[in-house]
Amino acid sequence: MNTQVQIAGVTFKNPVTVASGTFGSGMEYGDFLDLSKLGAVTTKGVAPIPWAGNPTPRVTEVYGGMLNAIGLQNPGIEVFCERDIPFLKGFDTKIIVNVCGKTEDEYVEVVERLADEPIDMLEINVSCPNVKEGAIAFGQNTKALESITSRIKSVAKQPVIMKLSPNVTDITEMARAAESAGADGLSLINTITGMKIDINRRTFVLANKTGGLSGPAIRPVAVRMVYQVAQTVKIPIIGMGGITCAEDALEFILAGATMVAVGAMNFVEPDTTLRVIAGIEDYMKRNGVEDINELIGAVR
Q1: Can 100 be counted among the known catalytic residues?
Q2: What are the extents of the domains in the chain?
């Protein structure tokens, strides 16, 4: 029985990774699971210099999930390369590094710094605000997305996965823009913008007012978007959004995702990824599926 999948020439032992920002670089999870069992670890976003993130409070539970407005707090690329990459190299798993920035130049700086590091893939978070374009996210404008994808591809030595925002009118337009600019694959979806108000204090629960909604509540939206994009582009997709179990993951795979990423559930049950992997294998055995690739995009 084969559970291996390939994206842009990189082979993963199974189709399960973690969603960026929900797993750090895996250090916090070492007591809960063996990282070597994952298809890949996708790191928290890393920028050229340390980012402090947004003011607190910046996380809150909501029905069906959570809202976060962390603001991409991270220690910067130098600490990441000196501390996090050596830690991850101690495990038999692929390394996908999520990259963020506030201008094209900042993204390019990180990608160039990572060019000779022993990592396997880059995931580019285009939900960051483009400060030179009035803080509109790169992933909400096709021209901005094409431009940043093209620039990153021109300097990257690893395959480039563009992580798309669902906060757009037509996700397929953004997918086509990334593909046409040379992206090797796509990740979707990122969080959906939401808000929570404290009726007793009559104020916003999050200091940032709005935050990104993740968790089971967004899964039907995410599955729909993965399906639409899979019908539109030819490059592979990493699907994510509210995965809690193997059944959820299989929905994404059947809709067209080559890999899946577990996000918010890492905070609830840290071994969710392992249960998803085991559940996919059990499904394949019960249904006589010899190769996981037979399931990718099987629902049309």
Answers
A1: no
A2: 5-53+72-191+215-294
Residues near 109 by Cβ (< 8 Å), separated by ≥ 6? 48, 77, 101
65-68 sheet: strands from edge to edge: 59-62, 65-68, 210-214, 192-195
Of 81, 100, 128, 245, which residue is the catalytic one? 128
> Looking at residue 136, what is its pLDDT?
62
pLDDT digits (tens, 9 = 90+) for 106-141: 999 999 999 999 999 999 999 766 555 555 678 889
223 phi and psi, to 5 degrees?
Answer: -60, -45
Contact present, 77 and 87 (Cβ < 8 Å): no
- How far is it, in rounded angstroms, from Cα 109 to Cα 154? 12
Instruction: Sort strands 197-198 and 203-204 into parallel, antiparallel or unpaired.
Output: antiparallel
Token pair of 263 as six digits: 């996000």
> What does the pLDDT read at residue 133?
56
Please report which helix (H) or strand (E) contains residue 107, including its range. helix 104-114
pLDDT mean over 25-29: 92
Identify the band that residue 274 occupies on the pLDDT scale cut at 50, 70 and 90: very high
**Spatial contact of 12 and 161, defined as CB atoms under 8 Å apart:** no
CATH 1.10.3720.10 fits 5-53+72-191+215-294, yes or no: no
